[in-house]
Amino acid sequence: MKISPLADPRDLPDLPRLLRDEPRDTEWRLHRGHERHLGHPYGQSFDPGVPPGLAQLLINNLGAPCADQQTGTEAREMERQVIGWLMQLWGCEMPQDHWGAISASGTEANLWGLHLGREALPDGVLLYSADAHASIPKAARMLRIPAQELHCTPEGEIDLAHLAEALAGLGGKPVLLALTCGTTAKGAHDDIAGAIAVLETAGYGPERRFVHVDAALSGMVLPFLSDAALSIRPGFHLAIDSLSVSGHKMIGAPMPCGALVCRRVHARRNGHRVTDPRPAEVAPMRTRNDHAVLAIWTRLFGRGYAAFAEDARRCARRAQALARQLRGAGAQVLCNPHSLTVVFAQPDEGMARTYQLACSKGLARAVVMPSVTEPLLDCFVSDYAAWATRRGMENDAAMTQPR
Ligand SMILES: *Cc1c(COP(=O)(O)O)cnc(C)c1O
Question: Which pTM does this prediction carry?
Fold first, then answer.
């Protein structure tokens, strides 16, 4: 229904009905949409969830996460516990040497990470791979960081030879390097240790480089997979500077959110610049959504390490199984090791819409999240196989047409 923004609610023909129906219709549509969602890594199992009473409250985390709580409308202690959980997962052996906060999204966490990098190295040039998330070059534009895109391997990992070449061409300028753990397009994991070794070889020691790892999806997958090489597992066991994750992907918060953890030295450098009685305000957003903190806290502590580890193992297994089934149906498929993302030729528009596949450049992808059910995958495989057969027949027919 179209409602004029100028309308006085009292003039609307049936206000009680409108207030009841419009949200209810939207809810119905969302349920339908969520049931058949394959294209984006949305966590959609919300149990345990935040007790409903809290949804009625304004909870605003005002200012620095590491500061003491100053108003009665914050959930700061829970934010610290959440960050502590992530720090442990990501190998921060000395949590006091690290800093972290909940962000509005993985995108915003990437923006913060690169902001910290720019403050550390004001003359730095950002290097990122062609398959880095769009938020990386966007952050570079917002922060006016000169940036250069690097090639990827066909599987979607950053091309380390091209990295070495680019470093040699920087004329000694410092470098900000954005790596990805679980690329959006192909679920690839950049070789973090390999990239750092290339930096070292090129003479880029820790004081002349800043390494940010965008681990929006796989930051909550790879740390749990003991068979994944340490070189691609995101964490501070490697000489990285900051690490970001989305809250509404594997963590499963029912609203967009994210988190950033960095070495404390970077947060401290930024915090000094703030003239404010509150200490070390690093987050670019002063007002932050504590409902997200509650949601993430409830998920992490309510489920525990072992449950997330099981999710990661199971989803990685199921992604490989989906890839095998699609290959069995004659499709060409890419599913990188330890990845939840399965990539294949883009089917017709109707099918892409039905399963809400993410499509680009003739490829489509499905992400096997914990909430993706077996019946949904079965339906998808059978529809995709039928489409591939139809297309194969059309191609055959085209080949046999007289010229
Ligand atoms: C999803 C994603 C992002 C963006 O995260 P949002 O939380 O959706 O803003 C960034 N990088 C990668 C690799 C992603 O998969």
Answer: 0.94
